[in-house]
Amino acid sequence: MKKTCFIKLITLLLILTSAMLFLPLNAMAAWNNDYMNINDTNPATTNDSLVKITMHAELTNKDEQPRSGSYNVARYRIWFDGESEPTSGYDKNGWIYMDDYTHDNTTVVIYPTLRNLAGNRTVYVRISTNGAEYTTGVLSRTINLSLPADKFKAELYTDKTLTTLNRIYAVDAIDYSWPNGTGPQIGSRTTQNAASYIKDNFSMRFTKNVNFVVGDYAFFTRNDDGIALWVNNVKIIDDWAGAHGESSPYNFTGSYNFSSAGSYPVKVEYNEGGVDAACKLWWDPPPTGSLDINNGGTWAGSMPVKLNLSATDINSEGGGAYSANAAGITHYQATEDKLTPGADIAATGATPFNAKKYFTLSGGAGAKTVYVRYKDASGSYGPWYSKAITVELTAPAAFTNISPANDTWTNNPKPTFTWNASSDANSGFTSAERYQLNIGGADKAYLTSTTYTYNQAVTNGLVAYYDFEGNVSDQSGNSNNAAWTGTATYAAGQVGQA
User: Global pTM?
Assistant: First the structure.
């Protein structure tokens, strides 16, 4: 009986030992410090669908001691929102082999592109050992892909026909040069620890809504190879074949007139075949300015009026070192009819441009409007600026003195003069400059009243005779002069004679 029990005990120990020898290795291994990061710090947003993915995993036994062989971290799977975890393709069953899979502690960096659609984008990664005997759980990160409205949206295609989209991102300007053997960075799920670039046979599209003012804009491109430009859905440059190299200062120019200010779509499409590559766009805004007449007056008393002209040429906009600084105001146009503006009038070519020029109005008296626009060295006209003015050719009503009477004598050394008020039925008088007296050839200050005391004391025995003259003016600059004295006479010995 005892012998039988001893045999059963030995048998049980053998069974337990055998079971331990054939336990699954998963029971003896553990993943330690496995993670996945986007753009190093896991920011909340990005404006580029191409991202940097850093993945790391460590595999240890139950005592957290490294093991070799089947413990080597060897492969990964990667997929994005809108996709399922791959189970086929790549190196085997959806797995991508790491370039170095001889360690149980591995970090891999790749530069794939997110799903090319603005919004929240999620990256999923799973890591395994060789043979997928050990696999991590699914590692995931979410980032918002945002394309700001104040930047160009760039689309990068891995063919010349804008067909196979690889990457979308935001750029401030279209200003690229790629020497032979270089090109833009593209996304790759398989290239590890290095960026991938496409050097030939690619295409790009750039789109943005841009704010433009009223006037003519000149657009410029430098391109190697082909390019096409649309402004407000109108193609103004078409060089898609692009059978030439980059030229200075530009390859092509086109123009577009904006009849009203606002936001308009701009689109550039570009393709590169081989060797050097370049894609650049900029534009020259129209000059801006102002107009005044007769230093701000609203009435004119003659047909030639003085135009107060002022204009500034604006620096080129849109991109890079190839855009030009303002070249200056070369011409202006002045007219009463914008439909028939007439010939350009030469300006100084400076910026800012300031000048006073005379312009003869048409017709007789009445309301008039003058229009002026400015032209820069690029040939772009700015918007029309206008100013209204009313022409009045009738002088104010005449006026005469009331006292003292003309050619009379007084012994008062400080006589007071009075006169009847004038009137003006059109522009009216100015608030301060209405009447002016001239006494003895000297103009006195302007008056608004109809009296004036001449404060000039004379000594006994002085005999003097003065001419008195009055003038009245209106807002148009018209005046009516009145002489109040007759022929000068002298009477000797008359004290206080005037």
Answer: 0.75
